[in-house]
TrEMBL record, chains A, B:
GO cellular component: cytosol
Protein name as annotated: Aminodeoxychorismate lyase
One of the protein's GO biological processes: carboxylic acid biosynthetic process
Keyword line: Lyase
Family indicated by similarity: Belongs to the class-IV pyridoxal-phosphate-dependent aminotransferase family.
InterPro entries per the UniProt record, alphabetical: Aminotrans_IV, Aminotransferase-like, BCAT-like_C, BCAT-like_N, Class-IV_PLP-Dep_Aminotrnsfr
An example Gene Ontology molecular-function term: lyase activity
Amino acid sequence: MAERFDEDALHAVGVRIDAEHPEGIIFDPHQPQLRVTDLSAVRGDGIFETMLAVEGHVRKFTAHLQRLQRSAQITEIPLPPDSSWRAAVDLGLDEFRTRGGLPDELAVRITASRGVDGEPASDDPAFSGTYWVLLTPVSSKVKDSRGRPISVTLLDRGYDSTAPQRAPWLLLGAKTLSYAVNMAALRWAAAHGHDDVVFTSSDDLVLEGPVSSLLLGHRTADGQVHLKTPSAEAGILPGTTQATIFRAAEQAGWQTSSGPVTVAELHAAEFLWLTGSVKLVSPIARIDDHEVRVDAELTNSLLDFLSQEG
Amino acid sequence: MAERFDEDALHAVGVRIDAEHPEGIIFDPHQPQLRVTDLSAVRGDGIFETMLAVEGHVRKFTAHLQRLQRSAQITEIPLPPDSSWRAAVDLGLDEFRTRGGLPDELAVRITASRGVDGEPASDDPAFSGTYWVLLTPVSSKVKDSRGRPISVTLLDRGYDSTAPQRAPWLLLGAKTLSYAVNMAALRWAAAHGHDDVVFTSSDDLVLEGPVSSLLLGHRTADGQVHLKTPSAEAGILPGTTQATIFRAAEQAGWQTSSGPVTVAELHAAEFLWLTGSVKLVSPIARIDDHEVRVDAELTNSLLDFLSQEG
């Protein structure tokens, strides 16, 4: 476990947002910040986004804030205004500069907890919960992993694909802190010799990874590339990285689509990738016992699409 | 929200367990204790139990510790020895005595977090996570609610009843901190005029409440009482309160059983209750639009069974 964090993690910066500090105030992430009664720690009752800042620029900040708002609506967790999040992130970036150097890449995690039950932090609903930003230098290990082929295992997420529509209390479109199952799936994969997971529905649709989106690709007869991703209706978190890739791909003349993807379709796919905001793009070279073709040139195109952004 | 906590909550006592304090050390729950990088707050990645202490005696402590151990095995979260939990709870009880008075009833929540990723709190695996006990006086509101008839709504939990067997990574037998869905279900119920929820599987079996177990009861032809509870195989947390009731009921000559319970069987049940460690027993008087008979005498018998214990 220890090797998952290198010395860079020791240099993380925290920024808290509250009614008295709507533009944020710096804290030391090595010091306790949360009460044990904070609902984030009591019941995983909060929402979050993880973004990538490159040379001090946060990629697709607006898309992440929009997804955070969607999570907030679903979970009924009140949020500070977007301007607070942006100011708090800026404050954190400045803190790095003041300390003598902005790392080339930072993982920027923004978290909104429902707060302490029965004790709103402020009478202003926009600041009634607990809000913080954590900026952590991206380790060389994570940087090196980008673009590298991975092996995944297909794991049933237990829900059928109609669950999100019929049971909104399952919060399937929200990115909540209740991630124990996602982490258990990743542990299961590691214990069985895989790098990552692709979740399936109980009715055999392909969904997403525990912390990533899935892309399928094939070269069409005319030499074009077609990218496809499972549709969000099945209870998938809409991927901001996937969306950025699709936008750039369309501009490059590629075809893109989203829709239901069956397990059979997954196995028939020519190329597959997992995408995420910090790990960016990982080509899938194996699904359980099935080899999958890997095309380094295509993977580099996807990585290029992401670096064009903003 | 504010009325859910009365002034008693201000007098909670916290006890932390770590390698330097294997028998616990007192902390003030109003002061920050957790780093924002603690996995309890990052990903709801921890496990817990909530117990009831009456006049300084923790009810069914052993059963809760056993269930915590089961959660720990499923989630691979290392735990301090039982003796640490017991000593820490004793320390918390003593703190109340020192302060001038042990409340007649305390909710005692024990929590084990996986800790901070990549930074184990100790080289000793038994203390590598973050561990704490929170003792909170039970409010008069909760006390008054015991035995009172409630209205519940049936909500689909999305999983079918075979999910626990085929997909252990769903952690269905573990009591984890990832409770956002349970809380969302309770909010849904409240918004629709109900007090609580009974979860169903997608294949129409009846499961449990978000924070309680379900009991079915009927009087048999010979005047006996038969209690039934849904079987744990369907992905239910085995209820410690339900188990205590069943043990005492059997000693009183009642019949008990556990097995699959269909929605039709639920609607045909003569009596229904939700049971939990702190709220004890709540007779169900309504399931959505269906009235259910309530028998105050039977409910009192169940409450008596619980007060006999220990």
